[in-house]
Specification:
alpha+beta; 3-stranded antiparallel β-sheet; two-stranded antiparallel sheet; 7 helices; 9 strands; elongated
Length: 222
């Protein structure tokens, strides 16, 4: 059993947005108090689909792990496994079938089937929601590990914010994070410009891992 999900999001543009993000599974909790990115889901075959179709085209509509390795001897196991997982998801929708020998009957029209599957997913989840931060915004400026704010500071993601609403809150959090990074020696201000350490994100990740490891040691100390 599932139900439709709708979200209300305060945007960095200062406006509140309302969007349908699709079905919610019975064991899937709603996402609250997180920082999300919403993107419209585009219904089109993926790169894995094109590879499957290319292999099936010369194998009478059949795909298999052995056939994939014959087609591409350099393909890593995990790469081939991604194609198998894709087909397993489509099998659950009745779009392809698995044969007794473990190979897959995908048809010579596989790309059309893949498009049909993507349109089905689009109808169920018209908007793709990606969690950018599980932590609340007010907790990010002083966070020990790498955060969404750090990725913004080094140029990953939009850096323009409205002067009102959530946009203003984000701008204030960015300024506070920048000051914290300078205090930590991970950034320095020169001539009104802030320069960040080349390995800043990796350093922050390492600090968080060290703190987690130290906490685990204390928790297991007899």
């Amino acid at each position: 059993m599932s139900e439709r999900r709708y979200v209300l999001i305060d945007g960095i543009d200062g406006r509140t947005h309302y969007a349908e993000i699709g079905t919610l599974g019975a064991n899937e909790p709603p996402v609250q108090n997180t920082i999300l990115e919403l993107r419209s889901r585009v219904a089109e075959p993926r790169a894995v689909d094109r590879t499957i179709a290319e292999i099936a085209a010369v194998r009478d509509g059949i795909y298999g792990e052995r056939l994939h390795r014959e087609f591409d001897p350099q393909a890593a196991g995990e790469f081939v496994g991604a194609h198998v997982r894709r087909l397993e998801a489509m099998r659950r929708e009745g779009i392809v079938s698995r044969l007794a020998d473990g190979s897959w009957s995908v048809g010579r029209d596989y790309l059309e089937r893949a498009l049909r599957y993507e349109k089905l997913q689009q109808s169920r989840n018209p908007v793709r929601a990606t969690v950018l931060s599980w932590q609340k915004l007010e907790n990010l400026p002083q966070a020990l590990g790498a955060t969404w704010l750090d990725r913004k500071l080094v140029g990953e993601g939009p850096n323009e914010h409205a002067s009102t609403g959530f946009g203003a809150d984000v701008e204030a959090a960015v300024r506070a994070r920048r000051r914290w990074l300078i205090e930590q020696g991970l950034a320095q201000e020169e001539g009104g410009q802030v320069r960040f350490a080349r390995n800043m994100i990796e350093t922050l990740k390492a600090r968080e891992l060290e703190r987690t490891a130290a906490g685990d040691i204390r928790a297991h100390r007899p």
